[in-house]
Design goal:
With 445 residues, this protein is α/β, with parallel strands linked by helices. The protein has 13 helices and 21 strands. α9 runs parallel beside α10. The chain starts with a helix and ends with a helix.
Length: 445
């Protein structure tokens, strides 16, 4: 009991200030004699108030209740709220100082909340955290230092020794783009929606036979009833497979505004898959670098999005070169139906694209391939800065050359019939979704 009391007892700053004042009084009493008895009286008064303040704070075992309320999961790169519940059980108002042991990933070593809490009252405090990495985050102890109005001593109370919260890809961003899936009146100027008729799984109607119709689709029962040749008409299946391919090689480790390119791609993949499923298409995910890491077959089940979320949760780059030939082989063997393939990767040099172009062309012959590349926003800022020295001009020239090469690579992909998205990292999700909606409106998927 005594050990616990000592561990919880802390001296307040006001006590040190009073002791400093008393020290000055006793020092002056060497020359001014009547100050000595005044100092003695004040010292005994301080001792009495110190004991009184200690009794006030320590007479109740449960003087205060505190609780940290965490959400089930955090959303990466978004603002997440942490709630703190405080309940004062004392009959006096208190002053509190909260020190929460925030996970090491945030590197916040000076976090504290201060305020006052009336007697027998309860309040809820809220602070915000923005995680920049996926994974497990551990919260330590929640410490609350309590003081009375006297402020001579503090009592430290500790609660909730250790809590775990997992940081998932940005599901908040995914929810923000939900409205795009419900925009049924969306009209793109210059785009014509093509309706294809063919032999697929989705039946459309029964119609009279016309010259040129496939005789294999004759419906003999309907023909007998109508006394005229009737054929089944089919249309392209509406639930098209859409695969998001995530490059996990070294090129995706480049950071922008605290997030790696892989994190931007993962957030976009989740938001885009949500839109695709709500539009009736089947969403799948494949991750690869020098090998195929994980794959999730395309599906449009409502629970499929949770599977995608769990799959994306623990992905990390492996700092190795990416094997696009392996990706082509896997797609040819595993994905038999023509699908839309969105490849999240990055090419910084023309030579890197030229090495992979044969594989990209081979994939584009079998599927609708969309290659996503990232603009280097740091180079853009360098190229747009005013130049004052020769070295600045040189840096701007080099930055401009890299930016020009990136646009040239996008045009080269388009020239070979490969759809391309060249985007800033922060605009990736909305540009990917818009590209999907555009291709869907044009009837290409």
């Amino acid at each position: 009991m005594l050990k616990k009391f000592i561990q919880q007892l802390f001296l307040g700053y006001r006590l040190y200030a009073v002791l400093l004042g008393l020290s000055v009084i006793f020092l002056l009493s060497y020359w001014i004699a009547f100050l000595f008895p005044v100092g003695i009286i004040l010292l005994w008064s301080l001792a009495f108030l110190l004991v009184l303040d200690t009794i006030i704070l320590f007479r109740k075992q449960d003087a205060l209740f505190a609780q940290r309320l965490l959400p089930e999961k955090f959303s990466n790169s978004d603002v997440n709220e942490v709630r703190l519940l405080l309940d004062n059980h004392l009959a006096i108002p208190i002053t509190y100082t909260i020190i929460d042991e925030i996970p090491v990933q945030f590197q916040k070593r000076d976090f504290e909340l201060k305020g006052e809490l009336p007697s027998k009252e309860e309040i809820t405090l809220v602070y915000q955290l923005i995680p920049l990495e996926r994974g497990e985050y551990y919260f330590g102890d929640l410490h609350v230092f309590v003081q009375s109005k006297l402020g001579l001593v503090k009592r430290r109370l500790s609660f909730q020794r250790g809590q775990l919260v997992k940081v998932y890809p940005s599901f908040i961003q995914m929810q923000q783009y939900d409205f795009l899936a419900n925009d049924t009146k969306r009209v793109d100027q210059g785009l014509k929606k093509i309706r294809r008729i063919g032999h697929t799984l989705e039946f459309e109607q029964i119609k009279e036979y016309s010259l040129g119709d496939d005789v294999r689709s004759i419906n003999w029962k309907a023909t007998a009833k109508a006394a005229n040749l009737m054929v089944n008409q089919f249309q392209d299946e509406k639930s098209q497979p859409i695969y998001s391919i995530l490059d996990m090689g070294r090129v995706m480790q480049m950071p922008f505004e605290g997030l790696s390119l892989l994190d931007y791609a993962i957030n976009s993949c989740l938001a885009f898959s949500n839109i695709a499923i709500k539009k009736g298409d089947k969403a799948g995910v494949v991750t690869f670098s020098h090998t195929i890491h994980k794959s999730l077959a395309a599906s449009n089940r409502k629970t499929h999005l949770l599977g995608i979320l769990e799959m994306l949760y623990g992905l990390k780059t492996d700092y190795l070169d990416t094997d696009f030939g392996l990706l082509y082989t896997w797609l040819k063997r595993k994905v038999n139906q023509r699908s839309m393939v969105i490849l999240f990767t990055n090419f910084e040099h023309q030579s890197a694209l030229e090495r992979q172009m044969p594989y990209l062309q081979a994939i584009a012959k079998q599927h609708l391939l969309v290659v996503v590349m990232f603009e280097n926003t740091l180079l853009e800022s360098v190229a747009s800065e005013p130049s004052e020295r020769i070295s600045d001009v040189l840096m701007q020239t080099i930055a401009g050359k890299f930016l020009y090469d990136k646009r040239l690579m996008a045009k080269e992909l388009n020239r070979h019939g490969i759809q391309t998205i060249l985007t800033k990292p922060k605009d990736l999700s909305i540009n990917t979704i818009n590209k999907y909606l555009e291709l869907k409106a044009r009837g290409l998927i």
